[in-house]
Amino acid sequence: MTEIDPQKIARNLKKLRDALDLSQDSLATLLGISESTVSNIETCKRDISLKTFGVLEAFFYMYSSDELGKTEIEIVENLREKMAEHFKEILPHYVNLLETTPSIVFAIKYKLLAGDYIKNFKEMNKITEFFKTLGWDFDGPSVHNALKRKPQWVEVRKHPTKRGTFEYRKIANQ
Q1: Is residue 87 domain-shared with residue 123, that is, in the same domain?
Q2: Considering the entire predicted model, what is its pTM?
């Protein structure tokens, strides 16, 4: 194992927590540690103990201790679903957290933009239909507002022929 770098672990833990759409409190519950410990790790307020690092390594089983200490880990595709499947017998409360509808930002970042669905401009009704195929019933105005707040991810434009309608396209290098 490489030497534990608190800043690298902090970045990676935030990235993994984001990819799972978990709050610090929810992650702490699943790890069996306090929320303040998660916060302290993510803000580098305290060094991480070897015991706590071992808990992280066991929970994020698909990443080695060396990977958790890298500058930038790569998020495994469908991480949320893979971890739910892995832990369904031993941590059923974890699966319950993942069966709830995720945040709109999570849905956009890790599902809508993960593929080429909006490689070309799509209207909101098509985007909300896409989310419904995943079992998530988001309303169009909420998705529109979330997409408008992410200009680094999505181009939003007025529909060329339909008044009051917008179209959305994934930014090419996203």
Answers
A1: no
A2: 0.76
**Per residue in 135-154, pLDDT tens?**
899 999 999 999 999 999 99
Kindly state whether residues 93 and 129 are assigned to the same domain. Answer: no
What string of DSSP letters covers 8-65?
HHHHHHHHHHHHHT--HHHHHHHHTS-HHHHHHHHHTSSPPPHHHHHHHHHHTTTS-H
Whole-Å CA distances, 40 to 6, 7, 27, 45, 123: 10, 11, 13, 5, 42
Token representation of residue 167: 């179209």
If asked whether residues 74 and 114 sit together in one domain, one would say: no
Angstrom distance (rounded) from CA 128 to CA 60: 31
**Strands of 75-137, DSSP E:** 122-123
Q: What is the pLDDT of residue 71?
A: 67
Q: What is the pLDDT of residues 81-132, one digit of tens each?
A: 888 888 887 777 766 766 778 889 989 998 999 888 999 999 999 999 999 9
Rounded Cα gap, residues 117 and 134, in angstroms: 13
**Helices and strands, number each (H, E), in the chain:** 10, 3
CB atoms within 10 A of CB 30: 18
